[in-house]
Specification:
rod-shaped, mainly alpha
Length: about 120
């Protein structure tokens, strides 16, 4: 059998193969596009990560300077001691107030008695 090449048929087959290949390549590319991050999305992601790193650094610095459990326990003890001292001082001031009132009463009686003597009553 004598094979003669039909170039028109080869051209048509090649055109169909190119069209189908392009279609398949676009399907694969669109499918892979969902698996990878675009440059714009990656840039936005980098910005958000940078902002979160700044926020995390701020939180870490605040946590480092925050009082520990032992510090809070010591402050609780000191506040309790101050509460006892305040109650003691309040009781002492009440006692002093009562003493001053007694002295004031006696002093008022003496002054009134002295005024009565001077006026001749």
């Amino acid at each position: 059998m004598d094979w003669q090449l039909n170039w028109q048929g080869v051209g048509a087959i090649m055109a169909i193969v190119v069209v189908l290949g392009t279609f398949a390549l676009n399907l694969v590319r669109n499918g892979l596009r969902k698996d990878f991050v675009s440059v714009v999305d990656f840039s936005q992601l980098e910005t958000r990560i940078s902002q979160n790193n700044d926020r995390l650094t701020t939180v870490e610095n605040r946590m480092a300077s925050a009082p520990t459990h032992a510090d809070l326990k010591d402050m609780g003890k000191r506040i309790g001691d101050l509460e006892v001292a305040t109650a003691t001082n309040t009781a002492t001031l009440s006692a002093v107030k009562e003493g001053v009132q007694r002295v004031e009463h006696v002093l008022t009686l003496l002054v009134n008695h002295g005024l009565d003597k001077e006026s001749g009553k």
